[in-house]
Amino acid sequence: MTSKLLEQIQNLSISERILLVEDIWDSIAKENKSFDLTEEQKQELDRRLEFSRNNPNAGRSWDEIKEEFMRSK
To answer: Which of 20, 22, 26, 64 is the Cys-Cys partner for 60 at CB 3.0 to 4.6 Å?
Structure first.
């Protein structure tokens, strides 16, 4: 990474850097269509999905969490 790019990144606010990381991660995920999961990871995802289906009012949405975080800055 060039020092100029790193300097530009460091000049961003924390919330802007988090959004940048999200954008970078999304671009990686888009290029790498599949991620290999272990059997344990698949089972955990299945467990969480079933919990979510059985408890639709549990927890908060990503939008709610993100909005709260952005307001805190």
So the answer is: 64
